[in-house]
Amino acid sequence: MKHVGIWVDKSEAKIISTKNGNEYIKTITPEIDHFNPLDESGTKVEIGPQDEMHAPNAYSETESHQLIEFFKTLVPSMEDTNAIVIFDPAQSGKKMNTEFKAKHPTLSTKIISVEKTDDMTDNQSKAWVKAFFNKKRNSK
Fold first, then answer.
1. Cβ(26)–Cβ(15) below 8 Å
2. SS3 string of 50-107?
């Protein structure tokens, strides 16, 4: 039985696969432009009133579309699995789950949970996924 845990945020995704007691990790980095309203010196950028109203929304929408494209790149890593858990430190996991329900309904049925976690090292991520699926198996 193959299980997959996906730790995801806007800067990377770690895909942790477990099969026959072994854990494998693959890191994928997205191409997402992050909006930063500060200039290089760390002070607010001077923009006019009209720019101020539209710039953050335009960047946010662009970032959102780029995030959706990033989620698409993760699909092949999850197709041959029995169960998926998504874990993240912010809102990316919920967004990913929502996107999969809308665009990948068959795959979304394999998502058994979306969990909040802190940032983790690769070894911590592997251990977390292994413990999560062991707990699920033992609770049945």
1. yes
2. HHHHHHHHHHHHHHHHHHHHHHHHHHHHCCCCCEEEEEECCCHHHHHHHHHHHHCHHH
C-alpha count within 13 angstroms, C-beta hemisphere, residue 84: 25
Structural tokens at position 20? 């026959």
Inter-axis angle of helices 49-74 and 92-103, nearest 10: 60
**Structure-model confidence comparison of residues 52 and 120, the more confident one:** 120
Provide the token pair at 128.
Answer: 């977390």
pLDDT in tens, 11-58: 889 999 988 778 899 998 877 555 554 545 544 445 554 444 445 565
d(CA 128, CA 130): 6
Tell me how far apart the 2 most distant CA atoms of the chain are, in Å: 59
40: how many CB neighbours lie within 10 A of its CB? 7
Distance of CA 95 to the CA centre of its chain: 8
Has domain 2-34+47-138 been given CATH number 3.30.420.60?
yes
The half-sphere exposure of 132 on its side-chain side, counting CA atoms within 13 A, is: 26
Average pLDDT rounded to a whole number, residues 91-109: 91
Contact 26, 123 (CB under 8 A): no
